[in-house]
Specification:
Number of domains: 1
CATH topology: Aspartate Aminotransferase, domain 1
Order of helices and strands: HEEEEEEHEEHHH
Number of helices: 5
CATH class: Alpha Beta
Structural class: alpha+beta
Mean pLDDT: 81
Strand content: 15-25%
Helix content: 25-40%
Length: 152
């Protein structure tokens, strides 16, 4: 696998966005709507990261999240190490693109996506899966009349 095939594969998942972050990393995240700040949407990337690819030739080429059991198995393999700053959350880094074969790489990246997706709040998953439902609920809530407050 290489950067372009990884990119194509990650972008094939639902609700995925990519951006360049930290000057040299292509970050894949399950995209979420940004919070409103004083009536404007935040321009910062929003979402939960499931895969990071290094755009520079030196250093780890790709990192992804895994289960504690898989983490323990993978770090025993050559050219795979605990990811810097993320190892405590069970992220691994592949030092070479061929540290795993293509099928295994796809399986681990997909599993990383699934882990992150399932950790999202249920309401967020539902909002992403049904964006029209969210807008319908918003417009319906605007038509409700408020009850007058009781004065004591």
């Amino acid at each position: 696998m290489n950067l372009e095939t990884l990119r194509t594969y990650c972008l094939s998942f639902p609700y995925v966005a990519e951006n360049v972050q930290w000057d040299e990393h292509l970050v894949f995240r399950i995209a979420l709507a940004g919070p409103k700040i004083k009536g404007k949407r935040s321009t910062a990337p929003q979402g939960k990261i499931f895969c990071i690819a290094n755009l520079r030739p030196e250093g780890a080429c790709v990192s992804f999240k895994c289960t504690p059991e898989t983490f323990a198995e993978l770090v025993e393999l050559p050219d795979i190490a605990p990811a810097a700053y993320l190892a405590r959350s069970h992220w691994v880094s592949l030092e070479q693109w061929d540290a795993l074969n293509n099928e295994d790489m796809r399986e681990h990246v997909r599993h990383s996506y699934d882990i992150v997706w399932l950790k999202l709040p249920k309401s967020t998953r539902e909002r992403l899966a049904n964006p029209a439902k969210k807008n319908a609920t918003k417009s319906a809530s605007r038509t409700k009349t408020k009850k007058p407050k009781r004065r004591s």
